[in-house]
Design goal:
The model has no long low-confidence stretch (mean pLDDT 84). It is built from 4 helices and 5 strands. The protein is α+β, with helices and mostly antiparallel strands. The N and C termini lie far apart (66 Å). The longest helix is centred in the N-terminal third of the chain and has 15 residues. The chain is elongated, with a radius of gyration of 23 Å.
Length: 127
C-alpha cells in the first residue's frame, strides 16, 4: 500500500474520531417548562409544592416593589388560560391534575398578557 493511501485512510479515521458524539443521554430539562413526566416524579400534593421543589426560582418576586401597588413585581398564575392571582393560587391546584407548567419572564408575560405582569407568569395546564 502506498504511503499516500495510508495517509488518506488515517486521515479518515481521525476525521471520524473528531466528529460529534452520538446523542444517547437524555436531554436536560428546560428551566422554563415542567412536563408531565417530571411532575409525576415529585409525589407532592399541590402545584405550589411542584414548583417549590423543581423550579423554586419561578416563585421569586421580580421587579420593583411599589408602595402604591404591593402586587407589583409579583408572579401571576394562569390556569388553563384564566388568571387566578398570585403564587398562592398554586396551593389550590391538585398536583395529580397538572399536565404541564410553563414560566414566562416579565417581558414575555407583558407582551402576551399586557401590563401588570412584570414579575412573570406561571402557566398551568390541567389534564
Amino acid at each position: 500500500m502506498s504511503d499516500l493511501r495510508r495517509l488518506a485512510i488515517a486521515g479518515c479515521f481521525v476525521a471520524v474520531a473528531c466528529g460529534p458524539a452520538p446523542r444517547t443521554a437524555e436531554p436536560t430539562p428546560s428551566r422554563r417548562v415542567l412536563l408531565e413526566d417530571e411532575i409525576r416524579g415529585t409525589q407532592v400534593a399541590t402545584a405550589y409544592q411542584i414548583v417549590a421543589r423543581l423550579r423554586p426560582e419561578w416563585l421569586r418576586r421580580r421587579g420593583r416593589v411599589s408602595v402604591r401597588d404591593p402586587t407589583a413585581g409579583a408572579v401571576v398564575v394562569y390556569l388553563n388560560g384564566m388568571r387566578q392571582g398570585g403564587v398562592s393560587a398554586l396551593d389550590a391546584i391538585v398536583a395529580e391534575t397538572v399536565l404541564e407548567m410553563e414560566y414566562l419572564n416579565g417581558q414575555e408575560a407583558t407582551t402576551r398578557f399586557g401590563t401588570g405582569h412584570g414579575g412573570g407568569v406561571i402557566l398551568v395546564r390541567l389534564r
